[in-house]
Amino acid sequence: MERELKVKEVIQRTYNVRSVRLAVEGEPQYQAGQFGHFSLKAGKEYRRYLSFSSSPTEKGYIEFTKKLTESDFSRLLNLLKPGDALKVAYPQGKFTLEGSGPKIAFLSGGIGITPIRSMCRYAVDRNLGIDIILLYANHSIKDIVFKEDFDQMQKQYSSLRVSHVLSEPAAGFQCIAGHINAQVIKNQIQDYLQRKFYLCGPPGMVEAMKKILESELKISQENIVTENFQGY
Description:
Radius of gyration: 17 Å
Helix content: 10-25%
Order of helices and strands: EEEEEHEEHEHEEHEHE
């Protein structure tokens, strides 16, 4: 169902990532991890599929988060301010915690963290008891989105562990240097054969991670759930 919603708040997450909160009444009607089809208009209409970075437990708004690029949609997004209206058709998607089991692992890169933030926030707020490990890959510390959120969630929910993987590590920041590969997964997720894996990020990364899980770690297809971020 398409709805016209008004901007409640705009939040700069990193130097090139921005969140937009849209006002809704009460508890939003979608599942953590789902996405919407967003429409911005300036003469012509520009549309993008974007995952919700908020959780349904966060009442009064839905939030989407996007990396700012040179696209027309990003240009219009950068101009949004409280009170502006845009259209969104939601909910859509099956990248959710439904049927997740007691142990899961998230493998994510860059802005692909948005639906994972939604699911982690939901698991924490509902105290679901799911054991969660997140490996989050970025270029450098300045590219990490929702760092403070994940720090806070780990303190609140003892069954969540986040490990940052950086290709350019920062001095004094605890992380894994390099990229997510089979050895990193084995080291950080020692019970990987007991977990369901959720992969989200650029298509190339998702495909590479899926190949590692299936070919090198012998994870069955039914224990791998994927979400590709096509373009920005």
